[in-house]
Amino acid sequence: MHTWTLLLLGLVTLAAALPEKLHQLAGEADEDEEGVDYEDEPKRPYSFSYAASRYYNGAPDREHQEQRGEDGITRGVFRYVDPRHKVQEVVYFADEGGFHVEASNLPQETLAVQNARLKHQELFEKIREEHARIGAERALLESENTDDEKYQ
User: Fold this and answer.
1) Of 19, 60, 121, 124, which one has the greatest count of Cβ atoms within 10 A?
2) Does 118 lie in the same domain as 150?
């Protein structure tokens, strides 16, 4: 019983001291990160790759390779087996111009997608015209109200 009391007393003491220590550690972390702009840091070269399987001791069904060179451009490829058991491959690179992808499974713009896009554009234009009309009516009403107030 005496051991449990000492253990409990030690835990209470530790818990009472812990918030102060956590505050000190948080303050140190804030000081380290303050004023750091990670976008200005040089892009360091690196390389990694892995392969994985969904099954224990199974053949890999996904893999990823990526590297960044001295030029700061990141290049990579990943492959995976899709639900139809077809291997899909995505090759990419990222540079100052953004993220660029070439893949075996990029969406294709079908006739249905083209029709939906056209319908969306038509509806958007109709809504834009209606909002412009409403804005013009409000502006006219506000100017009439302003004119009425001038003559009163």
Assistant:
1) 60
2) yes
| Cα dihedral 43, 48, 54, 55 in deg (nearest 10) | -160
Q: Is residue 39 part of a domain?
A: no
- Looking at every residue in the chain, the average pLDDT score rounds to 80
| C-alpha count within 13 angstroms, C-beta hemisphere, residue 96 | 4
User: What pLDDT shows up at residue 31?
Assistant: 47
Q: Which helix (H) or strand (E) segment is 88 a member of?
A: strand 87-95
Token pair of 126, please? 């109709």
Range of the domain at 130: 110-152
Shared domain check, 15 and 56: no
Determine the Cα–Cα distance for residues 105 and 78; give it in Å rounded to an integer: 12
Number of domains observed in the structure of the chain: 3
- Whether residue 67 contacts residue 45, with contact meaning beta carbons closer than 8 Å, is answered with yes
Q: What is the pLDDT of residues 20-31, one digit of tens each?
A: 554 555 555 444
Structure tokens at 88: 């899909």
| Tokens encoding 105 | 């499974």
Residues 93 and 62 in one domain: yes
Residue 147 pLDDT > 70: no
Is 97 contained in some domain? yes
DSSP string, 12-64: HHHHHHHHHHHHHHHHHHHHHHTT--GGGS----EEEEEEE-SSTTPPP-EEE
